[in-house]
Design brief:
The protein has helices at 10-19, 31-47, 64-74, 90-98, 116-128, 165-169, 182-196, 202-210, 216-232, 240-249, 259-271, 279-286, 290-303, 318-323; strands at 54-57, 79-83, 105-109, 130-135, 142-147, 152-157, 173-176, 199-200, 237-238, 307-310, 313-316. By secondary structure, it is of the alpha/beta class. The protein binds adenosine-5'-diphosphate. Adenosine-5'-diphosphate is lined by residues 16, 19-21, 27-30, 60-66, 188, 216-217, 220.
Length: 334
């Protein structure tokens, strides 16, 4: 797979776990969310009760799982991890909820992907710490109420707008995670390099940070690839040139675009004169499914101001022409 999108291999996850900050003070950036969370946690400590339920929203890799772990650690509470897609039946959720211990933190990733019946069970559990377990079928079905120990739910979703209102309303606090600035990513990288015992110059950090798409997970992943490169090339101190050469080799360019992103841009500019061109035509030109182009490449290209969406199709913005090394033709937006 691509370096900026990465995989889900055990080794990848192990290193990711090792690089996770363990408390709020080590968590870089997101100043507002951090401050708000601190307050929520402090208040619950003073009340001697488990914290309000917390919803974290934002794109993958920005630190939602990390924050859930930090919340549990700061509350001195055990943490249980599951996800929306893993809970297909209300019974799956009942099994998890009924086995929670008092004060436990339950992290539900991709909470917007839970099934409807499970979602309805969750409403009641969040509000009243109670669920109804339905036994039997049809006319003989009986609902047996089951008391739950007080727990704190930490839900994560890529977009808070995907959640049904009643579910959203049951969270006492919602934190929106934003993409990180290059300076913040440099701090993330500095910390990770320390843990990995890597020597990187300031310019080296900013070179890697600038290619990390505003995302700590990607920054850490690129750092590890740079580390491999430096090891093989016998480079002891990683400067901007070394970092750049390593990431060029992995086809992550100076703005963090990977091969797919660049082939979409390149097709748009060189085959369709900058567009507008329809999604399916563009997808055929790069040999991908329209879905892949739309969900994998486009969000970042649009966010970076490289591609625009119009009613008549996709267009290359001025920055796209420049990025590919072309002069910007007259009349191009951007
Ligand atoms: P999400 O759950 O939002 O997909 P994660 O919490 O799994 O993201 O974070 C992905 C990786 O990025 C982790 O290895 C973590 O160490 C790192 N990371 C995320 N946010 C931060 C941060 N604010 N400071 C330092 N490292 C971070």
């Amino acid at each position: 797979g691509s370096l900026v999108r990465g995989g889900d291999e055990p080794e990848e996850r192990a290193i990711e776990a090792a690089l996770r900050p363990k408390n709020l003070d080590d968590f870089v950036g997101q100043a507002r969310v951090r401050q708000q969370l601190k307050l929520v946690l402090e208040a619950s400590r003073l009340r001697g009760k488990s914290s309000d339920h917390v919803l974290l929203s934002g794109p993958p890799g920005l630190g939602k799982t990390t924050l859930a772990m930090i919340i549990a650690a700061e509350m001195n509470a055990p943490l249980r991890i599951s996800s929306g897609p893993a809970i297909q039946h209300a019974g799956d959720l009942a099994a998890i909820l009924s086995s929670l211990s008092e004060g436990e933190v339950l992290f539900l990733d991709e909470i917007h992907r839970m099934s409807r019946p499970a979602e309805e069970m969750l409403y009641m559990a969040m509000e009243d710490f109670r669920v109804d377990i339905v036994v039997g079928k049809g006319a003989g079905a009986t609902a047996i109420p089951l008391e739950l120990p007080p727990f704190t739910l930490v839900g994560a979703t890529t977009r808070a707008g995907l959640l049904p209102g009643p579910l959203r309303d049951r969270f006492g606090f919602t934190g929106h995670l934003e993409f990180y600035t290059v300076e913040e990513l440099e701090l993330v990288l500095r910390r990770s390099a320390g843990l990995l015992d890597l020597k990187v110059s300031s310019a080296g950090f900013s070179e890697i940070a600038g290619r990390s798409r505003g995302t700590p997970r990607i920054a850490n992943r690129l750092l590890r690839r740079v580390r491999d490169w430096a090891l093989v090339h016998g480079v002891e101190q990683i400067d901007a040139r070394a970092a750049g050469a390593a990431l060029d080799m992995y086809e992550v360019d100076s703005r963090g675009l990977d091969r797919l992103d660049r082939s979409v841009l390149d097709a748009l500019v060189t085959k369709f004169g900058g567009g507008p061109v329809g999604l399916s035509t563009l997808a055929i030109a790069v040999g991908e499914e329209p879905e892949t182009v739309e969900t994998v490449a486009e969000p970042f290209l649009v966010r970076e101001g490289l591609v625009g969406r119009t009613p008549r199709g996709r267009i290359a913005m001025a920055a796209a022409w420049t990025h590919l090394g072309f002069a910007v033709p007259d009349g191009v937006f951007g």
